[in-house]
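Two folds, back to back.
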Amino acid sequence: MRAALAIVLLGVTLGAAVLAGAQPSALGPNELGRVMILEYHKVDTPEGRWTRTPENFRRDLTRLWQRGYRLVALSDYVDGKIALPAGTSPVILTFDDSSPGQFRYIQRSDGQRGGDWVIDPECAVGILEAFAREHPDFGHAATFYVLPGANPPNRLFNQPELATRKLQYLVSHGYEIGNHSLWHAELGRYPESTVRDQLASAQEWVQRHVPGYRFRTLALPLGSYPRELAWAVSGQAKGMTYKHDAVLMVAGGAAPSPYARRFDALHLPRIQALEKEIDSWITYFDRNPGERYVSDGDAGTITVVSGSAGKLGAAVRSARVIERR
């Protein structure tokens, strides 16, 4: 895919126009800028180290939307297929551990339709769906790193009778499911056989609910790489094969552009979704807009600030180049 892209080199001055209230179009394109991959855990009350309240999660989405960020799928980022309107920036949402507040069904209490199950408007999926309806330009994407074999309440969102319905809903509504091991195993502590069993078994369990579904990405439990990176990337156990195109860490800050020379899909950093961390990074990009990935609105070109072509990855730099100054 990347070899088919043209590269446009533009002399762009990125001012501080993106401070609070500025319109996304005020930003010049810079597709070598960095990308925020946000890492959420519980969506519940009260607010805590690993918990974001529903109210604060809504506020996160609103703040991102107002500053010109738009949701993209993690797989599209990894593949270098970021298609966004000009002046907007990608942001990626990830959710670890399949806790109940991420995706919950409740029964209607108004007596209509015989008490049908509906998505809880206070869970993460419910909040994302409502926000997408109110702000259709924001996008619709997130990756859920599930734990199929964990003890309750983290086993596939803690409604066993609805597990199939939930996983199939995610896949059919534009979300992605990722590997987080079978039961949150700290992979660096285990031998090869256990690592491979954890990763293959997690996929096999999910395929019981979504036949044929294959994980494309792995989020490392506790950020722990196995002793050999290859064990995490691909392999097999008990007749099930797995292959991950990207491996995500638990920290590290904003990620490089997928077109950047330093992009490494097997070592992708994330920003933990804590109030302090989210505020810090949004503020950082407000004050340093030249560091932020900004789309040129044309999926067939990569627009970079003049003089920065040397930072492009090898696969991109070998593509057809068009210089416009």
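---
second:
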Amino acid sequence: MKQFRNHVIRAGLGALYFSGAHHMLRPIFAGVGAIFMLHHVRPRRDAEFQPNRHLEVAPEFLRAMLAHLRARGVDIVTMDELHQRLIEGNFSRRFACFTLDDGYRDNRDFALPVMREFDAPFTVYVASDFAQGIGRLWWIALEMVIARAPAIDVAIGGAATRLDTATPADKQAAFDRLHDWLRGLPGEQDIEREIGALCARHGIDEITICRAM
């Protein structure tokens, strides 16, 4: 269902773009500026099963976006400058601001060179546990567990459940169900407990994941 919803949204946005309707709607919805909230910036991977793909963009995409903004005369500003313009009501020029969440290693390796190429400032929000190598990136651990396993046995809502993960489509369906279940748990400790049990059963080292990111 989640994949279907994403496809519908992409199709709708594509229809707006190719029909030219986005030009007519710009005065209503364009606003005064935009914040680009990014996570991973890295080359595209070949694996067919990539449920966290929505959290990453390729360096080529970032370069194209920056080139587009510069060509249209949009100011690329720091977070402080954005705040100041909003406080002052200074909307004489459109502006854009870039943030990178979590502080992944690829921000340095792939995003930084592209941002420097366009003399574009950006803000990195670093999660301290990730920087220390002790964080739990449970959504990545979940992807790795499902990628490795032909089936997943887990207790969901107290009921023993087996999820088939033989094909990429099966893996995506299993990821969606487990992701929604984990997000619905009462707290972070509950998520960590369940992910820790899954990783232990399927030979995934959570600490190694964090230090590699």
